[in-house]
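W.,

You were right to be curious about this one. When I first looked at the sequence I had no strong expectations either way, so I just let the prediction run and decided to look at it fresh. Below is the sequence, 111 residues in total, followed by the output.
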Amino acid sequence: MLNSADSWRTQATDDLLDAILALPDRAAAERFFRDLCTLRELHDLAQRWHVVRLLGGGQHYQQIARETGASTATVTRIAQWLNHGTGGYREALQRAAAADERPYTTAAEEH
């Protein structure tokens, strides 16, 4: 039996994560997530990520709730995972910050 920390991990979740990792680019990710999720689910995921980025930037919970439309309970719950979770949010924030610092190049310039 799985312990509570790993109870979400199943073959189905592993398969989903593998499918996401196999996507070649943003356009493919857009198509995959649009087919996979309802518009509401996409909105909710995007809202959560927006909350994470604002929390990472040090904004106050009330300000984040006003800006994103998320409830303060949701902001608090996300902050708990950000500060005491598995580190996934922190790693994603670091990668996003690194990507933001990269100079913009077109595909033609990269080759």
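Here's what jumped out at me. Residues 106-111 have pLDDT under 50 and may be disordered. And, maybe more interesting for your project: Residues 38-111 form a domain with the Trp Operon Repressor; Chain A fold (CATH 1.10.1270.10).

Coffee later to discuss?

I.
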